[in-house]
């Protein structure tokens, strides 16, 4: 069988990660970071995106249990969608449910190994648990 060629999104993510790796000027790095977040958010399924927006709204209002429920619907409907796992990990983190957050981060990193938001959150979870090593 033939290998699947990389998608335009994959190539764009690679280029944006290269900008971050090189540490260009601050404004360029900020734009690259924002572009990566923008690339990660859409799931490719409008129904999933609607649930994500509901979860994000709830999380923004501090309704963490409800947000977690919405993100659980997202990961069930689209388990290959890294940002669904990441947002649920974030909601768990904000609720100080660090073990659940760490578990969801593992899923994110399986799908997007360079997800810097997840990597940062994972490190903070371990620090909050007292795991400094």
Automatic annotation (TrEMBL):
Gene3D superfamilies cross-referenced by the UniProt entry: Tetratricopeptide repeat domain (1.25.40.10)
Lineage top rank: taxon: Eukaryota
Signal peptide span: none
Coiled-coil portions: none
Name of this protein: Peroxin-5
Species this chain originates from: Alexandrium catenella (Red tide dinoflagellate)
Lineage: Eukaryota, Sar, Alveolata, Dinophyceae, Gonyaulacales
């Amino acid at each position: 069988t033939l290998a699947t060629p990389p998608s335009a999104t994959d190539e764009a993510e690679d280029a944006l990660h290269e900008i971050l790796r090189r540490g260009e000027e601050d404004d360029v790095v900020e734009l690259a970071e924002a572009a990566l977040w923008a690339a990660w958010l859409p799931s490719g399924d409008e129904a999933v995106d609607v649930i994500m927006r509901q979860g994000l709204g709830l999380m923004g209002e501090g309704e963490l249990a409800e947000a977690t429920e919405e993100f659980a619907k997202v990961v069930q409907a689209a388990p290959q969608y890294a940002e669904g796992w990441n947002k649920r990990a974030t909601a768990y983190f904000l609720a100080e449910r660090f073990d659940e957050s760490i578990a969801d981060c593992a899923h994110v990193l399986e799908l997007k190994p360079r997800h810097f938001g997840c990597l940062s959150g994972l490190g903070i979870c371990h620090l909050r648990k007292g795991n400094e090593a």
